[in-house]
Amino acid sequence: MFDDFLIRAALAGIGLTFATGPLGSFVVWRRMAYFGDATAHAAILGVALSFAFGTSVYLGTLGVALAMALTVARLSGRGHAMDTVLGVLAHSALAFGLVAASFQSGLRVGLSAWLFGDILAVSQADLVVVWAGAAAVVALLAWRWQGLLTATINDELAMASGHDPRREQLALTIALALTVAVAIKIVGALLIAALLIVPAAAARQFSRSPEGMAAGATGVGILAVLLGLWGSFRFDTPAGPSVVAAATVLFVLSLPLRRRG
Amino acid sequence: MSDLISAQGLSVRHGDTEVLHDIDFAISTGEIVTVVGPNGSGKSTLVRALIGLEPAARGKVHRKPKLRIGYVPQKLHVDASLPLSVRRFLSLPRRVSDAQAQAALERTGVSGLGARQIARLSGGQFQRVLLARALLSEPDILILDEATQGLDQPGTAAFYKLIEEVRAETGASVLMVSHDLHVVMSASDRVICLNGHVCCQGTPKVVAEAPEYRALFGMGTQGAFALYQHDHDHVHGTEPSDHATCSHEHSHSHV
Q1: Residues 6+ apart with CB under 8 A from B17
Q2: Beta B198-202 vs B190-194: how paired, if at all?
Q3: B85/A152 touch (CB, cutoff 8 Å), yes or no
Q4: B22 sits in which H/E element
Q5: pTM of the entire predicted model
Q6: How many whole angstroms separate alpha carbon A28 and alpha carbon A99?
Q7: What's the complex ipTM?
Q8: Of the ranges A4-18, A81-95, B46-60, which one carries the lowest mean pLDDT score?
Q9: CATH no. for residue A183?
Q10: Residue B88 to residue B101: CA distance in whole angstroms
Q11: CB spacing of B71 vs A160 below 8 angstroms
């Protein structure tokens, strides 16, 4: 029968998808995939710094992810060749994070847990953090929803109707950093971006409105968490990658659902 | 004087490049003002500065408090990953009722498109939907940034006719940015010829005869587009319009 740890894992994963559904939709709409990568990879550096200074891992990753996200957002506002700059930032953040982690003897052993997540080790305290973080992300996105959507379509259109696109971008940046911070224990730094993009891409196939797609992405995410955990339990595979693999299977299954209108 | 938007001594820089310099601009209630200029003359930058999206390197921009702007952009690329119906689009960012949305679509001649996905509209339909959305904000001023790009000539003429009707009904000011000279100019109260700075301005007739304008656009036979390929280091001999100085110390050519 299912054990407590499996139920906690499922609850943690489900809580996270409430944030990753709508946020992932924005990542897809705004073509921010690399942006998500850079922010998520920076989280490893955050983990290493947390171990070095003995602070909470959540706070450490939140701080570093926020710093990275703000840097990227600032650079993109200046019209640099973004693709290259983001590539450099995403990969170097990971490399520096891994180097920093190697100095922490306590981290060396369990590093893969931070890279790929360890959803089965989620504690009750972690559950509270995940659900609180996800709730904050959902509240932030719901609050800015209309302006964010307008700015996603066109900066001038948003500005002319009194919504400063830079402010909307900031809200999205904070939401992304917050999501990365609460997701790192569950799916790990390398798979966070996948959890943002894959369910949203699947939901696109059968959605006719932005809200429908955001909700659909959460629905696909929940299904992926449950399927992934079941597969992990049944076939003894690593949980985080199994969840992402399940999401990918759902994406492929969604392809024939493409609706035209 | 009830200026809706004005700029004094406005300069805008992009990095090391000064895109606009020493712009004095004002548009007041009910006016139709058209900004014309070649590609790269800073037309779109001027619009972005006037709505507050482009910081001023020098000078300042003033907008009337609580000014409602109806903005119709040059081109709008809605990413294919975003599912968005026309009806939903009209409620961005301010939600409107179904009745309001329907009335606006009817006014711009595209009723019946409400359920259609934005990505599947033709260019002409999309421009009319954009105008409908702009009208829903009950604007004090309509800003049209190359709004007819991608429309054919009858489509352009019909669109401008619609703008004139709407303006007559609502009394909104209209600020147009364009290079559709022959259509735009006849409808405008005032034309501003822009090329990094205000080259000349005045009534359409005055500007059309100003040497600065002709230097930028060629002599332009009636109704035809003037293609401008010229060296730009001429000196203006005569006093043109109400705006006299137009020094072209820079030299470049446009195709």
Answers
A1: none
A2: antiparallel
A3: no
A4: strand B17-28
A5: 0.86
A6: 31
A7: 0.86
A8: A81-95
A9: 1.10.3470.10
A10: 9
A11: yes
